[in-house]
Amino acid sequence: MTEMTRTAVRVGDEMTPLSRTVTQEQINAYADASGDVNPIHVNEEFARMVGLPGTIAHGMLDLGILVDAIARWAGGSDRVASVGCRFSKPLLPGDTITCAGRVVDVDPATGLVTLEVQADSSRGDRVLNNGRATVRLPA
Description:
Layout: E1 18-21, H1 24-34, H2 39-42, H3 44-49, H4 59-74, E2 80-87, E3 96-107, E4 112-121, E5 126-136
Antiparallel strand pairs: 1-3, 2-5, 3-4, 4-5
């Protein structure tokens, strides 16, 4: 891949989509690493008892995958200035999350590029929406 630069990016350019299948083992590892061991993430019986279809991935795990997709497109995590989105639907173990985005603004003077970003599950649900990311690209 060629070096991503502010002069090469145009409004309307699409971010290369990134897909990952999320497993219960990954959710458990995220719970351990983050300290968020809420039973909706790690206990299927509890999750069903509170009305969920089973355990669900942490929203921040979903967001982390989206940030990885943005960083890969931009050429590194050091180029990601900000990311924000709305958590709209749960991601279940076994679901594949697909992250995508589109350039909506380029400031050639500062190198700031703004993208609209989102993530969908293999069940057809938009799990992250109303997303915006800003990356800083070199000249």
